[in-house]
Amino acid sequence: MENKKKHYVRPLNIKTGKVEMNFGAGGKASAQLISQLFAKYFNNEYLMQGDDGAYLPEANGHLVMATDSHVVYPLFFSGGNIGGLAVHGTVNDVAVCGAKPLYMSAGFILEEGFPLSELEQIVKTMAEEAQKAGIYIVTGDTKVVEKGKGDGVYINTTGVGVVPHGIRLSGSHCKPGDVIAISGDIGDHGVAIMSQRANLGFETQIQSDSASLNGLTEKLVKEIPSLRCMRDPTRGGLGTTLNEIANQSQVGMKIFEEKIPVKESVMAACEFLGLDPLFVANEGKLIAICGPEDAEKMLEIMRSDPLGEHAQIIGTCVKDENCFVQMETPFGGIRMVDWISGEQLPRIC
Amino acid sequence: MENKKKHYVRPLNIKTGKVEMNFGAGGKASAQLISQLFAKYFNNEYLMQGDDGAYLPEANGHLVMATDSHVVYPLFFSGGNIGGLAVHGTVNDVAVCGAKPLYMSAGFILEEGFPLSELEQIVKTMAEEAQKAGIYIVTGDTKVVEKGKGDGVYINTTGVGVVPHGIRLSGSHCKPGDVIAISGDIGDHGVAIMSQRANLGFETQIQSDSASLNGLTEKLVKEIPSLRCMRDPTRGGLGTTLNEIANQSQVGMKIFEEKIPVKESVMAACEFLGLDPLFVANEGKLIAICGPEDAEKMLEIMRSDPLGEHAQIIGTCVKDENCFVQMETPFGGIRMVDWISGEQLPRIC
User: Fold this and answer.
1) Alpha helices of chain A — where are they, by DSSP H?
2) Range(s) for CATH 3.30.1330.10 in chain B?
3) CB–CB of A25 and B154 under 8 A?
4) A21, A122, A158, B195: which one has the fewest Cβ atoms less than 10 Å from its Cβ?
5) Taking each helix axis from N to C terminus, what angle separates B295-303 and B214-223, rounded to the nearest 10 degrees?
6) pLDDT, one tens digit for every residue, chain B (349 residues)
């Protein structure tokens, strides 16, 4: 984010204007876009320094850094847009490591011809969601590619946070006997996107669950001494994420199908679309794993948060050198929960 | 960068394989790409933690954060490729703020069908250049977009560094009388790219100057007490960057054309291509500005570094409420150096 001098800046036509190649060339047009759109909404003392990087306060604790490029299609969907998703995705990746998310960068790749009015909506949502999560967008970058070399807008966000002293969570810390909880209904985001893409008019429109989880994660970090690991099950869904953790910790997992919360509408849409909710992306759900001694307290804290009111304990870690994740069906059968192997849902985030 | 379990990973065909949509879907194919390509080359203790974000050491000092998305075309050019550029660009943005670059994220947006062999070359170069610069690539992300929605590969890198205690540089710190230096010949990167795009066969092929400047910037930070500001003149070139700094500091600048180092071959190519080297991108050049008392020492330090051997003092800051950058020609005339207004060079970085 460079510069904001007054005398050379002509007004940008946000209402009917479109992204032009010169918006990415580093000259007056770039400065115009930055000052009249990005700086206007992201406005904070760090971003406004106007240097090549943002000069930030000293950090008191271990750093956490996470990055995500967002290429979701469509850009606007029921329950959100790419801008909100870009904030939530990175806030959550930092937060699940036990850190308080503090600073975020935003890198835009714009396609020539993209309407500025839509870009403004996206930027406005990013600003609002960043403020809600208490994170500053401190530095940014804009590139423009020719029509047909992008798809409207792609957004990379990278987040930095600080972990409170004495806290160290990891997917590799789980032990047999540990208890696995999920913060609410699974599959909402993926189904919202897919049903919109397929142009399905379900009776009740399914909304993405896209949200920042750092309020909830901070409470768990503070209150649950035996907290081992948190993870937000995005691409690949709950099933893939549990497999990742099982593999990192070299444990097995046993989960109970009847405990896994799924909305009826999402289940119906999944059946229609041929999807398994276990492998459908979430953007505002939390997996948390702790020792058995804190299980009830963990569930209570989750349920007391607006983003965790449908939280459930869904299973436990078990000793298994194959690191299998197995699910008991309501009829007592056992189903293997494998990784998804291919492309279930492309460009879902 | 998630997971690296052995028993599910099939070998990737890097020699003749191409990027497939499922490489970005978060399942087995994603894990395969990560373990056999990214983790193989970027291998370090932070990346290998395998959690959603990287857990890093405590930082002792103010943080600096900078981001850049790279969309350069062509991906491979004389003197480098997009991978090296993505490291250099972000290392330099962090370094010119006076910080030691420590950690970097890498976000890839791959186009379906992109040859894995080319991706490997790019990733290999990134790894080599990161190692040279002493920065760790600690976290990453890969998305895949359909053929025709990208252009091979776009790379976002975001860097975090730490500023030594007591150091605070900014483009807003310059005062009349301050001395402006450039670390070497200008315009190499932009001309290398443009002549390749235009398919010009110049007698001597012009090479990009793409390089990490943090070795040089660290020396200046340490040795030059009156150092006000450093900046790498990328998009928009020397001319635009000087205007930005003049504007931030509310000073004018007077520079001398005969002092500005430009290679003869670059000058000839610029004439042929209709470009002004003042506004052509550099990717391994440094502008440094200090008080007059340290000018000679600054030049000496620059010239003692391999990346600064052609360094020159090119002018001074002057009192000017219009913040004009003016250039004296060899014949004593004065030329205004304005911002470039439009798209001189799209997708140059």
Assistant:
1) 28-33, 39-42, 82-95, 116-133, 188-197, 214-223, 237-249, 264-273, 295-303
2) 21-163
3) no
4) A21
5) 150
6) 444 444 455 789 999 999 999 888 777 888 889 999 999 999 999 999 999 999 999 998 999 999 999 999 999 999 999 999 999 999 999 999 999 999 999 999 999 999 999 999 999 999 999 999 999 999 999 999 999 999 999 999 999 999 999 999 999 999 999 999 999 999 999 999 998 888 776 656 899 999 999 999 999 999 999 999 999 999 999 999 999 999 999 999 999 999 999 999 999 999 998 899 999 999 999 999 999 999 999 999 999 999 999 999 999 999 999 999 999 999 999 999 998 765 567 899 9
CA separation for the pair B293, A31 (Å, rounded): 33
Residue B164: closest C-alpha in chain A: A58
| CATH number assigned to the domain covering A21-163 | 3.30.1330.10
Homologous superfamily (CATH) for B179-336: PurM-like C-terminal domain (3.90.650.10)
Q: Does B128 lie at the interface with A, CB-CB under 8 angstroms?
A: no
B144 touches chain A (CB under 8 A): yes
CA distance A208 to chain B (A): 18
Q: Indicate if ipTM > 0.90.
A: yes
Residues 6+ apart with CB under 8 A from B54: A64, A65, A66, B46, B47, B103, B138, B139
To test the contact with chain B by mutation, choose from A67, A287, A323 the residue with the greatest count of B C-beta atoms within 10 A, namely A67
- Is the CB of residue B170 less than 8 Å away from at least one CB of chain A? yes
- Nearest Cα neighbor of B340 from B192, B249, B233, B229 is B233
Chain center to CA of B36:
27
H or E element: which one contains A136? strand A136-145
Q: Rounded to 5 degrees, what are φ and ψ at A206? A: -85, 130
Q: Is B144 helix (H, G, I), strand (E, B) or coil?
A: strand
Residues of A in contact with B159 (CB under 8 A): 53
Q: What string of DSSP letters covers A108-132?
A: EEEETT-BHHHHHHHHHHHHHHHHH
Per residue in B146-162, is it b (16+ CB within 10 Å) or e — as a string? Answer: eeebbbbbbbbbbbbbb
- Report the chain A residue with the minimal C-alpha distance to residue B142: A69
Pairing mode, strands B153-163 and B179-182 = unpaired
In the numeric block, which tokens belong to residue B343?
């798209």
- How many contacts does A have with B, using Cβ atoms within 8 A? 317
Whether the CB of B147 is below 8 Å from some CB of chain A: the reply is no
B73 Rama sector, left if φ>0, alpha if ψ -120 to 50, beta otherwise? beta
Cα(A205)–Cα(A195) distance, integer angstroms: 9
Give this prediction's pTM: 0.96
Integer-rounded Cα Rg, in Å, for chain A is 21
Q: How close B282 gets to chain A, by Cα (Å)?
A: 12
Q: CA–CA separation, A49 vs B323, rounded Å?
A: 18
What single DSSP character describes residue A29? H
Subunit contact B69:A156, Cβ cutoff 8 A = yes
User: Is residue B110 less than 8 Å (CB to CB) from chain A?
Assistant: no
Tell me where in chain A the CATH 3.90.650.10 domain(s) lie.
179-336
Q: Cβ–Cβ of B27/A344 closer than 8 Å?
A: yes
Mutate to test the interface with B, among A52, A110, A157, A348 (most CBs of B within 10 A): A52
Q: Is residue A1 classed as helix, strand or coil in its secondary structure? A: coil
